[in-house]
Amino acid sequence: MTLASKFSRQQPVRVVYFAGSGRSGTTVINNILGQLEGSFASGELRYLWQRGIVENRMCGCGVPFAQCTLWGDVMDRVRQESPDFTPMSIAGGLRSRLAVRRVPRMVARRIAGRSAVSDTPEDKAIVNAYRALSDILDGATIVDSSKLPPYGLLLDGRPELEVRILHVVRDPRATAFSWQRSKPTHDLGNDELMPKLQVWKSSALWALWNVLTLLVWGRSDRYLRVRYEDFVADPEPTMRAIAEHCGFSDASLPFVDPTTVTLAPTHSVAGNPARHSRGEIRIRPDDEWTRAMSRSARWTVTTITAPALLLFGYTRPSRRKGERVRTPSTLETGPAATHTTNS
Ligand SMILES: [Zn+2]
Fold first, then answer.
1. Residue ranges of region Disordered (predicted)?
2. What is the pLDDT of residues 67-81, one digit of tens each?
3. Cα–Cα distances in Å, from 154 out to 58, 103, 106, 140, 185?
């Protein structure tokens, strides 16, 4: 162990946690942050145990997880320091402890000044993964796009971690449309598709997770909320604001022009297939949902999410015939890329 890594073990590991709901366009933001010096884009680290270790899915660097030398070093450290853990038990424990039905209890515990998610011995292994990553990468900030607020609450309750929150919100009609599309994961080298959600369910989860994120962290100076549509409309200044919030005030952003970034591969462990994107990626609005989404689906989303739509500034609940919505809603990569970048 180097002197630097010994020193860093005494400091909380810096984590930027993307909180909110799925398919909100966080993948490209995670990838861009991961290009900055002193930053590591982990993708959705809550899936490390299941999708990374157990299922051996593709790392963002292009090889299966078990063949990635970085993750090999990290897991060696974790096994040394937490020899009793099993990835299966950690993955199963997270699914159970972070379930939707437990959210009221988490909120009650948080209000009472306790850790929102009760501790278990396996949390030591979870925290050690963040610590090992940061130590191996000379104290890098871990940029985790897991999004699930209960997992963010678990991390935020650990004294070994210093967590900042980035809340990316996207129009729920766009996210509901994304949840219905069939997209290959590119994770297993087969034809596996990303999971789909019914419109009512994705709408309810959108409202739950975004409102919960706002309630839990909205008044903290560690919290920044960004509308995905604003990022797409004006990428570079928005990314500058995000980078400053994440502690990278003087960072050199990878923009080659106002809407194009150059991305090197990351070692993201899970997430939207856009995490595999590399090279020049053009950030541009894609309003496909405004043309292709059925009127009934749009009505369902708008009805279920109406109060939260107003809360987050989506004030036009539906599109009149032949009229385009005011805000662009999705982001697509450049012509060479094959994946959409929403997640
Ligand atoms: Zn890798």
1. 319-343
2. 999 999 999 999 998
3. 26, 12, 10, 20, 27
